[in-house]
Amino acid sequence: MLGFMGASMIGNAPSAPISLPAGNGDTSPRADDSIAGIAQAVLPVVVSIDVTSASSSGTGSGFVIRSTAKESFILTNNHVATGAGDSAEITVTFQDQSQTSATVVGTDASYDLAVLKVDRGNLPVAALGDSDSVVVGDATIAIGSPLGLTGTVTSGIVSALNRPVTAGESNDLSFISAIQTDAAINPGNSGGPLVNSRGEVIGINSAIATTGGSVSGQSGSIGLGFAIPINQARRVATELIATGKSSYPIIGVQLDLNYSKPGALVQEIVPGGPASTTTLKPGDVIVAIDGVKVGDGTELVVRIRAKNPGDVVELELSDGSIIKVTLGSDHN
Fold it and tell me: Are 303 and 173 in contact (CB under 8 A)?
């Protein structure tokens, strides 16, 4: 059995880096397309995030996505920004080890995303790639602060795409159509970038699979890491910076999440919602969206959340019929 946990909020991180004898190695710039060259280019935009309250503390990662002359915005995970409670103090540490306090601009638990603001301008900004162009086998590099070890770089490949992942609890449950990677991701990596061979961010490291369904803080990488696609995160981050809130797409139905057969059973059509103008009705079973099979109601929600409000989707029913729905929107 596999469980999912956010790769963040690690307490009791090492209080000081491990000291080893220094060598006389060559630290000159590496080739731009090498792992070392990519790391040298991306590390300056990556930060470590420490969240501390009276009762708990934790460490996560993030990266700068926008910077003006006076302030900068950092993208991270919701479970990093809110993991120690609403009254927690947030400290951001840059690669040069300088620190500053941060405030929360906005959060979206359903996408597990948050934007922080620091009163420091003219910072280097991450180059954002196109997660829709990613294919299985592409090279990946994960950068962050696993177990509080800042500036850690690991590498791997894209192992799978559109992997339905849900993590969190109750009101903080997130639905992610994730990029799966075997680059080592551990607690503390959450919120850090997953980049491609050009040094462009293609995802935000968010969760890892654990054996036995355990969410123990002792769980670590077993080669199954999951990242939020950057195209999805870009829209949410833009809305959070502009308004402090974000939207998500809906089809306007209630699903029976206890339905045990393949597909998603429609329990109710929401009056005035997008589906109310179609022939979709209670009792229908949705088995695919845009040609992609869905195993259950949760997977359907994940697939819909990967879309944008206003997109037109095709829902395939168990009887073979196709219904087109223009996605509406709701706000967190």
Answer: no
Q: Is 330 a catalytic residue?
A: no
Domain boundaries, the chain: 1-11+31-245, 247-331
Catalytic-residue membership of 112: yes
pLDDT for 87-105, tens place per residue? 789 999 999 999 999 999 9
pLDDT single digits (tens) 38-74: 999 999 999 999 999 888 888 999 999 999 999 999 9
Q: Which of 108, 112, 284, 296 is catalytic?
A: 112
* Cα 313 → chain centroid: 23
Residue type, 99: Q
The hierarchical CATH code for the domain 1-11+31-245 is 2.40.10.120
What CATH number is given for 247-331 in this structure?
2.30.42.10
Which of these is catalytic: 67, 79, 174, 284?
Answer: 79
Phi-psi region at 252: left, alpha or beta (left = phi > 0; alpha = psi -120 to 50): left
Residues 92, 115, 185, CA angle at the centre, nearest 5°?
70
pTM metric for this prediction: 0.85
Indicate if 56 belongs to the active site.
no
Strand partners, 205: 227
Among the listed residues 72, 110, 145, 190, the single catalytic one is 190
107-156 residue pLDDT tens:
999 999 999 999 999 999 999 999 999 999 999 999 999 999 999 999 99
